[in-house]
Amino acid sequence: MNRIKNTFSIKDLENISGIKAHTIRIWEKRYNLLSPFRTDTNIRRYSLSSLQKLLNITLLYNHGYKISKIASLDKEEIPIMVREIALKSNSEQVAINALKLSMVNFDTILFDTTFEEILLQNDFEFVFINVFMPLMKELGILWQTNAISPSHEHFITNLIKQKIHIQTEFLQKDYIPQSNKKIFVLFLPEDEIHDLGILFLNFYILKNGFKTIFLGQSLQTESLETLMSFSNEVCFVTYLTVEPNKEIIDNYLADFNDRLLKGKPNNLAILGPHQININTTNLSKNIMLFKSVQAFEEKLLKASILA
To answer: The domain 175-306 belongs to what CATH superfamily?
Structure first.
């Protein structure tokens, strides 16, 4: 299952590049840009190098180059031009395409140089929300439709995690403890292992000057009770992607409320796509749902600063 995918259908190429299959076929016939091979059952397939070439062509095409001009270039010229554009452009979509190209090529250098160039013009918060999050959303769809392999998805996810860890470490070194502010405890429930969102939230809360205790993936509720002796006011923060599953999520929150929130000045803030499965009818007032990081900031970070 985890082997590297190295042949692609024309539908895969369409999904990854954003260029319609009909257009790809026209480019093949008119400009001889790609050379698919056929399987024993006469099905057209494309090599990894064909996908790499198409992503390069797409980036140039979306940046204003005519397809006839691209077709006239030597094959060695195209990657050089792509790297120059990726490093000089402020367009988020160009950056996303460059990062997709780095994923397909397993090219850490292209990932790093693209990231560093964007960071020269924007802060890390902007990069994560406007480049990394849309990229991961696209890759999630591509992974589900088998257009890319788990190896691709793991490669790019772990590079993004590295960047979050580095930026978080910068903030932790400069953090000055303040006793008059609440403490944020960040965790993922048992069996929840998708941690990009919670890693970024840890960075974001630190950036706003608050103390965080980051506990990471797959934590049982009872193990959080240890925090009760650490602070009088705790804001628990979690990011739900797939767990707890929708059959038990309401019971999970009721138990969490009984153990850690009821009768205490504590809160639980929930972000992430899985919150749509929560029944809000009888939800404790100590449990808050947020559809965006900005909404979370307005309610819990700015309000705490003013308090």
So the answer is: Cobalamin-binding domain (3.40.50.280)
